[in-house]
Amino acid sequence: MAHYAFLDENNVVTEVIVGKDETDTTHDWEQYYGAIRGQVCKRTSYNGNIRKNFAGIGCNYDAQRDAFIAQQPYPSWTLNEDTCHWSAPTQKPNDDKIYRWDEPTLAWVEVTV
Prior knowledge:
The structure is a single chain. By secondary structure, the chain is mostly beta strands. The protein contains one helix and nine strands. It has two domains: 71 residues, no CATH class; 41 residues, no CATH class. Strands 2-1-3 form a three-stranded antiparallel sheet, with helices on one face. A two-stranded antiparallel ribbon has the order 4-5. A two-stranded antiparallel ribbon has the order 6-7.
């Protein structure tokens, strides 16, 4: 079982489906599914073995990096070129508390329940 992402004209993921595993070599499955839908189709992987990250609806496909990249969560966050994950300007505290990112102060703020 494999997963495939369909891309719109801006390389944004519109849908992810379960399809044939590429060990079944009767077709190039990206081309096969893409031709049926009339969209570009790219294989994706839950464990990040293919194209860095699992494709989700709204993610961008970056052809130069051959990677799926989530939308930037905050303007201050930067893209890690190796993982294609977004990173906050400061590291989140590593303790048992729950935090949220506060963009105006560029800081992690403890969530109190």
